[in-house]
């Protein structure tokens, strides 16, 4: 979840973006709906007051217009209260005569809009007294000219008046602002809740993937052989494919081991026959055959061991306990070299394990312990430690040891330094090759006991 490439990050980011877009769009929509509702309520009130104002208007005998009653709202009588009405004869403006106004206008007047046609109602915004932002409604109403009728002018045109009612928008704007503030924190809380819900959903939804990772890690470290357990329908096919892959991998490795064993048997038997036949005949030819057969046997042993290790080095889920293997090897070596007074001392924590095949571990550690027993005077010490995913097995002896030049010769050039000591002379080379196949290494140095110190680094399970 920490990187943009993670599945959890993508799910949470996508959900957050969609939620944010929905919350913003919903907030704007609700805010606009509320503002429109506030304005509609104000318009309804202004229209109702205008109808009352029109109903109270009566034409006077002198041709003017008089108000029989005023709007029964104290705000129209309070100076600059924000609620105003005005009746203006058509064509008159400024301080022209005949205009009727509410007491709240005091000595001011409203700018009569000119967009009211016929009896239609017009709405709009305007500046009022005290620089107030006003919402107004206007209607043009015609009344008979009573003065002209009294003088006998029956065809006299009616007089037209503009009835205007206005109110300050400040209160409505304040209500809308309060609503926006409430909407903001409530939608913010909802967004936080949705984020937490998404986090929980992603955590719960992706938990099976975490379980798969943990069980794959157990397979890789040798604690399990297969992906066991039940999984959701979307992950179950993946688990089945992994198990089939593990089975196929094990079958391939087994076939490779079988072929290697068959090859070893097929090569060693003819070599043994050649060696036996050549040993029965004395002469230069038999000596050459024996010498070359020995070389061939060493090469076969070396490359067969390397091929077998290569086939098993990448096997998943293999684990070998280091303590029991080294203890068994120490007992075996003591039986072989105990006759010359060599003692094996092994101190291996039981919690350490090699991530690989048991026979490969026996091959590399056994070669080193065997080599130490050949050259030791009285003691071979074997120890092991694990850290940072690496298992380090150290074999030391109190023999003569090797110089730096000799270490290079036995490791790099694979030379035998003493033909009198039994063996093929390829033990250290085989150890190094197998260690390389497992991503490890072999280091030689000087032991505190006075002899050779071999430090073998392998993957830790």
What does this structure look like?
By secondary structure, the protein is of the alpha+beta class. It has 2 domains: 1-220, no CATH class; 318-461, Heat Shock Protein 90 (2-Layer Sandwich). Helices cover 51% and strands 18% of the residues. The strands form 4 sheets. Strands 4-3-7-6-5 form a 5-stranded antiparallel beta sheet. It has a 5-stranded mixed beta sheet with strand order 9-11-12-14-13, covered by helices on one side. A hairpin with a 5-residue loop joins strand 1 (57-59) and strand 2 (65-67). The protein is rod-shaped, with a radius of gyration of 51 Å. Mean pLDDT is 81; it is low at 417-425.
Order of helices and strands: HEEEEEEHEHHHEHEEHEEHHEE
Residue-averaged pLDDT:
81
Count of discrete structural domains:
2
Q: Major beta sheet, specifics? A: 5 strands, antiparallel
Radius of gyration: 51 Å
Shape: rod-shaped
Question: Which stretches are low in confidence, meaning pLDDT under 50 for 5 or more residues running?
Answer: 417-425
Instruction: Estimate percent helicity.
Output: 40-55%
What class, by secondary structure content?
alpha+beta
- Trace the largest sheet across and list its strands: 4-3-7-6-5
Annotation, overall tally of beta strands? 14
Summarize the helices and strands and which ones pair or pack.
Layout lengths: L6 H50 E3 L5 E3 L15 E7 L10 E2 L19 E7 L5 E11 L2 H5 L8 E10 L1 H51 L15 H44 L4 H30 L6 E2 H16 L5 E5 L5 E2 L3 H18 L3 E9 L2 E8 L6 H8 L15 H11 L3 E6 L5 E8 L2
Parallel strand pairs: 9-11
Antiparallel strand pairs: 1-2, 3-4, 3-7, 5-6, 6-7, 8-10, 11-12, 12-14, 13-14
Helix pairs in contact: 1-3, 4-5, 5-9, 6-7, 7-9
């Amino acid at each position: 979840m920490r990187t943009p490439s993670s599945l959890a990050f993508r799910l949470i980011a996508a959900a957050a973006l969609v939620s944010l877009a929905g919350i913003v769009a919903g907030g704007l929509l609700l805010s606009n709906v509320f503002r429109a509702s506030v304005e509609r309520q104000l318009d309804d009130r202004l229209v109702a007051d205008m109808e009352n104002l029109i109903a109270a208007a009566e034409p006077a005998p002198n041709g003017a217009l008089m108000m029989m009653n005023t709007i029964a709202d104290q705000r129209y009588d309070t100076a600059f209260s924000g609620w105003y009405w005005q009746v203006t004869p058509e064509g008159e403006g400024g301080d022209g005569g005949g205009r009727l106004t509410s007491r709240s206008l005091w000595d001011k007047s409203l700018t009569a809009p000119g967009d009211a046609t016929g009896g239609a109602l017009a709405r709009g915004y305007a500046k009022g007294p005290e620089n107030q932002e006003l919402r107004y409604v206007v209607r043009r109403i015609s009344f008979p000219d009573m003065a002209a009728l009294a003088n006998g002018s029956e065809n006299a045109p009616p007089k037209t008046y503009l009835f205007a009612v206005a109110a300050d928008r400040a209160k409505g704007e304040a209500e809308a602002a309060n609503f926006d503030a409430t909407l903001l924190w409530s939608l913010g809380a909802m967004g936080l809740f949705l984020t937490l819900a998404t986090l929980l959903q992603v955590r719960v939804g992706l938990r099976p993937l975490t379980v798969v990772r943990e069980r794959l890690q157990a397979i890789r470290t040798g604690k399990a052989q297969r992906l066991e357990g039940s999984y959701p329908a979307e992950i179950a096919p993946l688990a089945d494919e992994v198990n089939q892959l593990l089975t196929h991998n094990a079958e391939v490795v087994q076939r490779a081991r079988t072929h290697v064993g068959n090859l070893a048997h097929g090569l060693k038997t003819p070599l043994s026959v050649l060696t036996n036949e050549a040993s029965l005949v004395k002469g230069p030819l038999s000596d050459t055959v024996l010498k070359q057969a020995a070389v061939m046997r060493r090469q076969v042993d070396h490359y067969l061991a390397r091929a077998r290790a290569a086939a098993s080095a990448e096997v998943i889920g293999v684990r070998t306990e280091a303590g029991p293997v080294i203890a068994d090897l120490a007992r075996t070596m003591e039986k072989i070299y105990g006759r010359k007074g060599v003692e094996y001392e092994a101190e291996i924590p039981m919690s350490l394990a090699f991530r690989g095949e048991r026979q490969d571990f026996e091959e590399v550690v056994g070669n080193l312990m065997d080599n130490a027993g050949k050259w030791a005077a009285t003691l071979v010490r074997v120890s092991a430690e694990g850290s940072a995913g690496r298992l380090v097995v150290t074999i030391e002896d109190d023999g003569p040891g090797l110089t730096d030049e000799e270490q290079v010769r036995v490791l790099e050039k694979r030379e035998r330094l003493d033909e009198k000591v039994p063996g093929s002379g390829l033990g250290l080379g085989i150890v190094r090759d197998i260690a390389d196949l497992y991503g490890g290494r072999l280091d030689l140095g000087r032991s505190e006991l006075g002899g050779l110190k071999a430090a073998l680094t392998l993957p830790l399970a």
